[in-house]
From TrEMBL:
Residue ranges of domain CobN/magnesium chelatase in the record: 225-685
Reactions accelerated catalytically: protoporphyrin IX + Mg(2+) + ATP + H2O = Mg-protoporphyrin IX + ADP + phosphate + 3 H(+)
Pfam family, one: DUF3479
Name under which the protein is recorded: magnesium chelatase
Family: Belongs to the Mg-chelatase subunit H family.
GO terms of biological process kind: chlorophyll biosynthetic process; photosynthesis
GO function terms (MF aspect): ATP binding; magnesium chelatase activity
Sequence ranges assigned to domain Magnesium chelatase subunit H N-terminal in this UniProt record: 60-221
Range of residues in the leader sequence: none
Source species of the chain: Phaeocystis antarctica
Length: 685
């Protein structure tokens, strides 16, 4: 919708196309818990128990993490220890933070901590769950051999204990580390960024500490480095280091003294990472040289015309090698002819990626579209958000900002089987908060395996996300005179002469004004009618026309063979509506698309939703579906008219009420099936 770089339409807020069906039930059954639960994954399924402990000292580890990517690294690390260490073995029990809402899980967590040697926690930022963790770990803290908590809420951070090292002690002593603790509250992006800086200046800091304290503080900082490294090798070294020095039976007997523990292996704190690149790149220009001269030609990408898609990733997924979903999206985007700039940061302030890598040396935005794949707000992640900073960053970039959703707190099976789609907690963290920054298109692109914790790329959702992103990019690159726009008006209530009405909006007056503005911006609008009334006459020969009236202007007659060929889900509609063309929006032989084309602008009348006699059936009946005429309308808009964007005017349309998940739609949800890959703007009154 934009002329080259700077048309203001890029910044128009868009009502995201989610289903808004009435609740199916007060709570979707999720199994294994009370209100608020939504994960069926069982911690017991991922528990690691050594097969052979004969003659070996066993130490027990319990961990709680917000996200699942560390789960696989921890499991692999424990298996490596059990397979490779003759004198020690490890038993490991792990919990995803949200699983502690389940009372059975929580009771098992208490039992596991009571028997543990080492507790590890990370990114525990949900207050009620942080309280639960503290209530269990704090009474066992003195007995535990080591407690390692990485960026989390203050009360959880205070649980840290490695020998003489504690957060409380560091806050009371007079040294460089105490100054850091006093200046940085243990929560949010500033604390994590400060911890990263402290790791980099570790040698300077430790010289201020006495011998034993220096050793214990060094162990904590090394543990943080291992954790940030994230790979199975790093996590194995973390566990061996803690066990060797702090698990009393192992330390006293020197069972690991002969074991050589690797130094932390970490990638840079931020950079541009590509799965087939030889290294992490420091600058945009450096990366683009490699991309344009080496990689893109090998992929058959036309570097002169390809849209450039900037992507923001979480470093922890790269560290832990849980990157299959990232790789799938990058490869799919490239297969569709786009250049991808995949960036990451170890901070929770993802605006660092934007500022560092999405502008060229001249300071101009160097990408066409930005996609945030972290699933969180741009600044603050799941902890604390800084929306003003995020908005300032995005306004400077001035590009469409898409925030796709990895199903972080649900397994793929749970999301797939749920009528809600995303659970309310996930909606809040991964949809609502990013929307406050200005994000659009909350499309699911990955799920989680409940046992391994590995991310699973969702191929059909990635396909839609890539198509949508590329079409947003082409809107910016395409000349206005070549852009095709479909404007959709509603008829509600149907059969009442209400075509083009909406609460608190003069629909045809607004459309007429918009057409005039589009013409000024260089859009091809043909010969415009002389007045609003003339526009209405062109679309509705009879101003009182009913939706099924032949007086509505017919823009296109779609034959049944064409409809079946272009609408892959057409057969699914026959359960409710019989074979096409049916009786709605049909002349008995063809499917009729009502509306009128003005140059490259199509003004169409959305068909009735088909359940006028029983509208609640559309909301509640699981078998409900749009009729063939409704599907044919959107098939025409995308595949025959080939709209670059669709604009819905008003508040009474049926698209968002079609059956499907409420948030985080699947490819079988009808709002998603209907709109497909078209960028959709909804002018809501």
């Amino acid at each position: 919708m934009m002329q080259k770089d700077d048309s203001p339409l890029l910044n128009v807020p868009m009502q995201l196309r989610r289903t808004m069906r009435a609740p199916q039930a007060a709570m979707v059954a999720t199994g294994g818990g009370g209100p608020g639960l939504f994960t069926n994954s069982k911690p017991g399924d991922r528990k690691i128990v050594p097969d052979d402990v004969a003659g070996r000292e066993v130490f027990k580890v319990v961990y709680v993490v917000l996200e699942s990517q560390y789960q696989a690294s921890l499991s692999t690390a424990c298996k490596r220890i059990n397979a490779g260490q003759p004198d020690v073995a490890v038993e490991c029990s792990g919990y995803i933070l949200e699983e502690l809402r389940d009372e059975a899980n929580f009771q098992q967590f208490k039992k596991d901590v009571e028997e543990a040697n080492i507790f590890i926690g990370s990114l525990i930022f949900v207050q009620e769950l942080a309280d639960k963790v503290v209530s269990v770990v704090e009474p066992n803290r003195d007995r535990l051999d080591a407690v390692c908590v990485f960026p989390s809420m203050p009360a959880v951070m205070k649980l840290n204990k490695i020998g003489s090292f504690t957060m409380a002690a560091m806050g009371q002593s007079k040294n460089v580390m105490s100054d850091f603790m006093k200046k940085n509250k243990p929560t949010g992006t500033s604390f994590q960024d400060g911890m990263l800086k402290l790791v980099r200046t570790l040698p300077k800091v430790l010289k201020y500490l006495p011998g034993d304290k220096a050793k214990d503080a060094r162990t904590f900082m090394m543990s943080l480095q291992y954790w940030l490294g994230g790979s199975p090798e790093n996590i194995e070294a973390l566990l061996l280091n803690l066990a060797s020095n702090y698990v009393k039976p192992i330390a006293d007997a020197g069972l690991l003294t002969a074991v050589e523990v690797i130094a932390p292996e970490v990638i840079p704190d931020k950079g541009i990472w590509h799965p087939v690149a030889p290294r992490v790149f420091d600058t945009y220009d450096e990366y683009m040289t490699w991309l344009r001269t080496e990689h893109a030609p090998s992929m058959g990408i036309d570097v002169d015309t390809a849209p450039i898609i900037g992507v923001v990733l979480q470093k922890s997924h790269i560290n832990t090698r849980d990157d299959a979903h990232y790789v799938a999206l990058i490869m799919e985007m490239e297969a569709k002819g786009a250049l991808v700039v995949p960036t990451y940061t170890g901070s929770l302030d993802f605006s660092l990626c934007v500022d560092s890598y999405f502008f060229n040396a001249a300071g101009k935005a160097a990408i066409d579209v930005m996609i945030n794949l972290t699933g969180f707000a741009l600044v603050g992640g799941p902890a604390t958000q800084d929306h003003p900073k995020a908005i300032a960053t995005l306004q400077r970039l001035n590009r469409p900002y898409l925030c796709a959703v990895p199903a972080t707190f649900q397994t793929f099976e749970e999301w797939k089987d749920s009528e809600l789609g995303l659970h309310p907690v996930q909606v809040a963290l991964q949809v609502a908060l990013p929307e406050l920054d200005g994000a659009i298109e909350p499309i699911i692109f990955a799920g989680r395996d409940g046992v391994t914790g590995r991310s699973i790329p969702q191929a059909d959702r990635i396909d839609v996300l890539c198509k949508r992103a590329i079409k947003w990019a082409r809107l910016r690159r395409k000349d206005n005179k070549d852009k095709k726009v479909a404007v959709t008006v509603f008829s509600f209530p149907p059969d009442k002469g209400n075509v083009g009405t909406a609460a608190y909006l003069n629909v045809f007056g607004s459309i007429y004004e918009a057409l005039g503005n589009l013409k000024k911006e260089g859009y091809e609008v043909g010969e415009l009618p002389e007045s609003v009334e003339a526009l209405v006459d062109e679309i509705l020969h009879d101003k009182e026309a009913r939706i099924a009236s032949p007086e509505l202007n017919i823009a296109y007659k779609m034959t049944v063979p064409e409809y079946k060929e272009l609408t892959p889900y057409a057969a699914d509609l026959e359960e409710n509506w019989g074979p096409p063309p049916g009786n709605l929006n049909s002349d008995g032989q063809n499917l009729l698309v009502y509306g009128k084309t003005f140059g490259n602008i199509f003004i169409g009348v959305q068909p009735s939703f088909g359940y006028e006699g029983d509208p609640m059936r559309l909301l509640y009946a699981k078998s409900a579906s749009p009729h063939h005429g409704f599907a044919a309308y959107y098939t025409y808009v995308e595949k025959v008219f080939e709209a670059d964007a669709v604009l819905h005017f008003g508040t009474h349309g049926s698209l968002e009420f079609m059956p499907g998940k409420q948030v985080g739609m699947a490819g079988t949800c009808y709002p998603d099936r209907l709109i497909q890959s078209i960028p959709n703007l909804y002018y809501y009154a």
